[in-house]
């Protein structure tokens, strides 16, 4: 078994443990379909997990389910690098918003996450954090007009921001006119609870700010771009120029 296969199995075992703890009823058939492997592979995974001391129960019969004792607690949490980055950035956003609730232990969590990164990855995370801006709370008018963006759009914008790649978006303005744009997502701005993409718009050949919930579709072009300093967007980031 190659290193990639071994890493894939370790990751699958972690996900299985979390899934079995959360769900009342899982079947080997369903688990195999969800993880894209054979039922035989899932059965071997479950046997290995039992050997490692996880209290996994199984019902007899073809339709029987498997579950992990809910009283069992995970002693450690293994996160992939993208998951750890997302969590660390979320902590930074929460701290920058100065919310007084649930912040007591965030400093400790942040230090542990940072310590888990290599120096190269720490530098990369610091650059990502510097590209997330926290502004004022959105006006009541903006909040009442806000809709949750589609998950696929959020994922595409998120990945393009991290990978520093241009994306082609379908964008609906306040007057409901829809246009196709190719943009460079240089910064993300949170005017709670509304997220904006601070970008270079290839259509206008100028800086523009786009409300994430008005992005109807997003597709990576696979083309990278060079980051510009925040000062290049200062005029655009003036509150009077933000899309409402």
Short note summarizing the structure:
The protein is α+β, with helices and mostly antiparallel strands and 244 residues long.
Task: Provide a descriptive summary of the structure in words.
The longest helix has 20 residues, at 3-22. The strands form 2 sheets. Strands 4, 5, 6, 7, 8 and 9 form a 6-stranded mixed beta sheet that branches. The chain has a 3-stranded antiparallel beta sheet with strand order 1-3-2. With 244 residues, it is α+β, with helices and mostly antiparallel strands. It has 3 domains: 3-68, Winged helix-like DNA-binding domain superfamily/Winged helix DNA-binding domain (Arc Repressor Mutant, subunit A, Orthogonal Bundle); 81-129; 140-241, no CATH class. It has helices at residues 3-22, 28-35, 39-51, 81-96, 106-115, 119-130, 140-144, 151-163, and strands spanning 26-27, 56-58, 65-68, 132-134, 165-172, 178-191, 194-201, 206-211, 215-224. Helix 2 packs across helix 3 (39-51) and helix 4 packs antiparallel against helix 5 (106-115). It is elongated. The chain contains 8 helices and 9 strands.
